[in-house]
Amino acid sequence: MKILLAGYNLDYDIIHTLKEKSGFQKDLTPETISAAYARISRSPKPVNELREIAREEVDKARQSNRNIVFEMGHSSVAEHAVFNIDVIGVSRFLVEEIEKFRLCSFTEKSQRYVLFNKDFVIPEEIRQANLTDLFTSTIDAQNDYYHELYEKLRPYIFEKHKSLAVDPANKSMLEGWAKEDARYVISMATQTQLGMTINARNLELMLRRLAALPLAEANDYSEKLFAATKEIAPSLIRYTKATDYDKLTRQNLRRLADDLLKEPTCIKKLVTVKLTSYSAAADNKITAALLFSSSDISYSKCLTTAGKLDPRTKRTLFKTAFGNLQSHDAVLREMENVDLQFELVLSSSCFAQLKRHRMSTIIAQQYSPQLGLTLPPSIKAIGEQKHFMEIIQLTQNAYEQIRKKLPQAAAYVLTNAHRKRVLMKLNAREMYHLARLRADQHAQWDIRDLTGKMLSQARKVMPITLMMACGKNHFPVLFKKHFPSND
């Protein structure tokens, strides 16, 4: 056996400096890795030799990539070329679009930990429509109150958690709690930054999709992202222009939906978490999957057997599957065989966290003031509810004025407290992951509350499957409950 390091990420400034100092004229590109790996399936040569050949013949490597990726359709070859991208000065609103791409990695400047300045994006649509004064005055008011609110929340948080405040090591955490509640009053136009790791296949898709969005900021992002990467791997990125499929499909569906749903929406009682569908007999199906993977019997026979087992025997099987589980372990893949679908109504602040669970299916509507807003309890506790609602009312007045001219760009002015509807489908294994991270005591209160409600409803329809689903801090107690003899 040989395990050889084929390459790793380097800071681009280092690469640039090395080229300048060494006078190295050959193309430094991840395309050679893609070309070498593409040839593995048809060449008897060791892969390290294929990489050497690709490095020596970059032009041939690029032509090979074009043939394999675009002519033969083996797009996975492009996944071997990986880019690290600094994304600076974009709005939180655009970040929601950027982070829709599943097979990428994102680390974003967090409003939970960083006290933001008053920087924000003014959309080009707003400028063109002569709405800049309205837009900026509204966001200036939000930002001024955000800093005022933080200064009032900070002493309240420290007083409420005196036992933690005694230890200076907890200062940053407590200040973070004040920041994360103050942020509910700032807008989705707030400027932020993120680090993105993306392979060439997903880069091409991102370029095309964001070019198709009816937002000037998204189009500008697509153009600048292409400009930053096009010289590095030209053989792996070809289809970057918006297509009619990407531009028109959502627009046409929305128009048809408006015709089909003519009744005005009347919200009587808002349900924020509703389990809309789930796999029937989920515990039986997971029982059968566990039997299947642990035997040489067909799934249909395993399912029949699972249906005949008494609850105690089923629980014994699950306890065997969970007996050595630790809080950081992912549960077995068999749990992916059953699904849950939820309709959620959640704040922008909460959605910013939920959207990071990209292995689930998340379909989101546009933000709507009709869905109300999420008010942090701490703001009410310090007597700032009236002032907070005055800023919200100012925001919604501006939103309505902008929406009449620019329906697509109006949401920029809305705050992190405003809400949208989301349809989320996830399997039981992903439910475990969501619970471990977001039902934990260290999770932010808004998404912790949402996850707790989801988990409560999910357990009712698959109680044995989700018997160990909980936040990390609850895991020792839950484990002791189900496995008292393991102490």
Describe it:
- The structure is a single chain.
- This protein is α+β, with helices and mostly antiparallel strands and 487 residues long.
- Among the domains are: 12-80, no CATH class; 280-335, no CATH class.
- 51% of the residues lie in helices and 10% in strands.
- The protein is built from 21 helices and seven strands.
- It has helices at residues 12-22, 31-39, 47-56, 58-71, 92-98, 124-128, 132-160, 162-165, 171-182, 200-212, 216-229, 244-260, 282-293, 299-308, 311-322, 348-354, 377-381, 385-405, 428-438, 445-461, 475-482; strands spanning 82-91, 105-108, 191-199, 273-278, 339-347, 361-364, 419-427.
- The strands form two sheets. Strands 4-5-7-6 form a four-stranded antiparallel sheet. It has a three-stranded antiparallel sheet with strand order 1-3-2.
- Helix 2 (31-39) packs across helix 3, helix 2 (31-39) crosses helix 4 (58-71) and helix 13 crosses helix 15 (311-322).
- The two termini are 41 Å apart.
- The mean pLDDT is 92.
> What share of residues is helical?
40-55%
What does the radius of gyration come to?
Answer: 26 Å
Structural class: alpha+beta
Strand order, largest beta sheet: 4-5-7-6
